[in-house]
Amino acid sequence: MNWKRVSLLLLLIFLVACDDNAPPPVQDSYAEVTLTPLATPTLIPTITAAPGGAEGIGLAFFRAWEGRDYLGMYSLLSPQSQALVDSSAFVSYYEEMMAIAAVQSIHVQPLSAAQNGDRAEFGARVTWETAVVGAIIRDHVAELVYRSGRWGIVWHEGLVLPELKGGYRLYMEHRIPARANIYDVNGKGLAFQGTVITLGVIPGRIQDEAGLLNVLSPLLNKTPEEIRPLYASALPDWYVPLGDITGEVMEAHYAELQPYLDNGLATDDRLTRLYTETGTAAHVLGYTGFIPAESLAEYQALGYQGDEQVGLAGVELWGERYLSGTRGGALTVVGPNGEYISTIQESEPKQARSIYTTLDLPFQAAVEQALAEAIETHPAGAAGSIVVLDAQSGAVRAMASYPAYNPAIFDSVRVDAAEQLQAVLDNPNQPLVNRVTQAEYPPGSTFKIVTFSAGVNSGLYTPNSLYTSTGTWDRLGENFIKRDWREGGHGTVSLSQALVVSCNSCFYDVGYNLDGYDPFFLPNTARQLGFDAPTGIVGLLEAGGLIPDPEWKINVQGEGWVTGDSVNMAIGQGFVLVTPLQMARLIAAVANGGVLYRPSVIDRIGAGGGAPEEKWPVEAQGQLPLSDDYREVIRQSLRAVANSADGTAAYQFTGLPVPVAGKTGTAETPGGQPHAWFIGYAPAEPYTLSDGTVVNAPQLAIAVMIENAGEGSAVAAPIFRRVVELYYGITPVRPYPWE
């Protein structure tokens, strides 16, 4: 026995016991006590109290957790803990556990703090708000030690969750409800969960090739000659997928296919997102697909595993929170080898909620077909759109954009999906663009409704103000002479009659005078009528158009405003850009008494997950800045456009039993034929339906826009007529004029 060391230890104990201010000596796994021999009295250690501040370090550690500042947390660990776990492993562990538990936020409530010499404790109640299993609440006690001149946290996995102490980890068993359907207003399916069956062959097992190909041909919409090369070069035992059919088609044709299931035919089925055969309403519905990499963390924070298919566009994207339901799951603790240890918390999923759109499926499909036929048969046709609104609510009854696409091409597992998608992406006419809401065009003469409104509201004009049209207009000077569309002009016309005959020179004059009155007056009137901003339709990407004014031009173009800018704007040219949806909303307001409604493709959200059915609200966004008298003048003028001898489109509506009103537009574009517009509403007067019901107010507001196809009266007006005929069940009496 070393009696000298024992004597020194007894002396230290005696000295500490006599010092009321000194803390008791503490030994732990983090410290080694080195005793100095008595022979060197000047080096005898004096034990002093550790400074305060442990409570602040403990609080800072948990507050950093609240802010997901894991590096900040790591900096507060004791040197010894930092020696046991490096910063990257520490951060990764926290990030992984928070992601697995789908923690959305963390809240800390301090509970207690105590210090005893160079040891301290800090207690806190930590609440995890998770997206899957609800709130998880645990009380933590963090140990702190004073070493190397600072306080630090003694860290272990239990400070993440007490159940993890000892090196355990978390695991989430997800419970996912089935994705809900999207319906039309009457409950007909537009997008729904269903089974897709891939038909394929194993070449070496084919016994009756001719018979098999004859059965497959109509199902895959390919000739036997087109099918055979798909597997001709395959090895005998290879499985070669040929094409996809739905479960319903498989069921209907099972008797024909069954003999070949042991004769080279093989099938593979899976649950996926289905749409109508022709992809009706694709631009409204959008499509689903795997979660994009850049959005993965965001979805995982909402409780998604990360390998699901989600809405990526249209109503599928907007309605994700309804269509996906509420996820459930069981959060468990597992050991190093993945063995189950215990359950932290669990919850059951809640049923997803279907979305009912405002569309009518048969009408929507018919409008799409009418648009496609019109463009495909027109010599210059390439692209265009039609939108039909309920004039009294803003509900979208049909929305067609051409060229279109089938949402099924985004199902990457489908045979030929990649090829079909690439063809759509390579199409210069951009089938993925919804031309109703995203495309911006000069409105041409349809904008004269706006100019008329500004003219009468300025006090410079009344509907009866007269103008003499000679065919040319030269108030900007002899170098800027403008010509009317009618050779020789329209003679003397009133402002309201100028709207009927679409007299350009009259509206040039209105624009000129409005500019002298106030160059902001016409632009501001356009904004009051709903332009220069998105309509706010939910679920769809939307452009806002452009209404220029002096401030815009100097800020964007770097040039000052000139009177010619107002003159061009007056007939919907120059810098003015609008969307077809904006024009449809304007004409709906003219028809319904002046209310600008927010257009909507959502009719209601179905019941589910404990929530009742939810009717989507009709929202009035504003009122046309027009008196009832002025608005009625516009209505009468638009009625005359489609019916009077001077109306620019009257010849297109001969024999149509439904009274209509509207406005033509021929918008000039650089380097090509003009865009053809027609906007209008029906019925323009009381109309008796086939069942005897009398319709006293306009039901439909319609905008037709065909790109680079010619005059609005010649191209867009007959398509407008076809849409009205389709809605009211009237058999068309004539083909399109260009057919």
CATH class of the domain at 444-603 and 617-630: Alpha Beta
In round numbers, the mean pLDDT is 91
Question: With helices defined by DSSP (H or I, 4 residues minimum), what is the helix count?
Answer: 24
Largest sheet: 7 strands, mixed
What percentage of residues falls in helices of 4 or more residues? 25-40%
CATH topology assignment of the domain at 444-603 and 617-630: Beta-lactamase
Radius of gyration: 37 Å
Strand count? 29
CATH superfamily of the domain at 444-603 and 617-630: DD-peptidase/beta-lactamase superfamily
Task: Please state the second-level CATH architecture of the domain at 444-603 and 617-630.
Answer: 3-Layer(aba) Sandwich
Uncertain runs with pLDDT below 50, 5 residues or more? 1-48
Shape: globular
- Structural class assignment: alpha+beta
Provide structural commentary.
Helix content is 31%, strand content 24%. The protein is of the alpha+beta class and 739 residues long. Among the domains are: 40 residues, no CATH class; 113 residues, Nuclear Transport Factor 2, Chain: A; 166 residues, Alpha-Beta Complex (Penicillin-binding protein 2a (Domain 2)), CATH 3.90.1310; 174 residues, Beta-lactamase. The strands form nine sheets. Strands 6, 7, 8, 9, 14, 22 and 23 form a seven-stranded mixed sheet that branches. Helix 16 crosses helix 18 and helix 18 packs across helix 21. The longest helix is centred in the middle third of the chain and has 17 residues. The radius of gyration is 37 Å and the shape is globular. 40% of the residues are buried. The N terminus is likely disordered.
